[in-house]
Amino acid sequence: MKRHLISAADLTRDDALLILDTAEELSRIADRPIKKLPTLRGRTVVNLFFEDSTRTRISFEAAAKRLSADVINFSAKGSSVSKGESLKDTALTLEAMGADGVVIRHNASGAPHRLAGWVRGSVVNAGDGTHEHPTQALLDAYTMRRRLGDLDGRRVTIVGDILHSRVARSNVLLLNTLGAEVTLVAPPTLFPVSVDTWPCEVAYDFDAVLPKSDVVMMLRVQQERMTAAYFPTVREYSRRYGLDARRLAALQDHAIVMHPGPMNRGVEIAAEVADSPRSTIVEQVANGVTVRMAVLYLLLGGSEPAIGGDVTPAGVSPNGDARRRSGDASRREDA
């Protein structure tokens, strides 16, 4: 029976809350002198990255190592992939090596789903093309919850290159599941055709939605994925859709500013905003390790590895007792 995290849409509300609650438990490890648990000792996690990455790859590596898993980092550059080896043949190689979990980032949308049909281990989508990036959405939700509390009824505004953003799609799906109201803001040219089917609102006037927002998430313009001119100039884009000090002042006092990174300072976000107390950008990076620990723990730990079921990390509670959390989430099968 195969269990994976391919899409934010795979997660029920109970699934998502289970991951966030488990991450909260695991965050207590950060205060310990030794920041490791023996939970995944003897398990092997392969980081299979076909696209360049800094934060996500290192975050997954740190998460697996803190759970005492053996980690193999695989990069397409310098591997047999550069010689023409197919994803399926790479998957069969991983299968022969006995990988318990595979974290994959690929430039083709749907690659993690295909991989899940070829390996017995759990597959975690670390970003596939312009499709999804579910663990980024989870760490974003975790960060929001830590700053703002319950997400029910919270208004989240996501601004920028929605067309090429897997982060936007996963956030819309997950935040809707958690009860938040999401509004996407971008030039008309930077919305996907399918946006009408997403569970969110669409707006073109950034200034109009700012005062009502609890969270403003800025997205990078992904020029490396663009094959045409989507707006007149970078300066014009920044003027209409950039978050500067003037727009920051229009936010409610409790509102926070987020960015999944990497940032283009001075384009979608001003340096003074990125470095302000309202910004959670550094927190998001730190929270990414904790949330990915929770995902790996729930998928690979225990006798029945699944997101859902009876799970709470043993040894994480302050008194050292092994406690268990009851989750009603349905277990996921994807193959």
UniProtKB/TrEMBL annotation:
Bias-annotated ranges (Basic and acidic residues): 321-335
Gene: pyrB
Binding site for L-aspartate: 83, 166, 220
PROSITE patterns: CARBAMOYLTRANSFERASE
Region described as Disordered: spans on this chain: 309-335
Family annotation (PANTHER family): ASPARTATE CARBAMOYLTRANSFERASE, ORNITHINE CARBAMOYLTRANSFERASE, MITOCHONDRIAL
Catalytic activity of the protein: carbamoyl phosphate + L-aspartate = N-carbamoyl-L-aspartate + phosphate + H(+)
Pathway: Pyrimidine metabolism; UMP biosynthesis via de novo pathway; (S)-dihydroorotate from bicarbonate: step 2/3
Gene3D superfamilies: Aspartate/ornithine carbamoyltransferase
Name the UniProt record assigns to this protein: Aspartate carbamoyltransferase
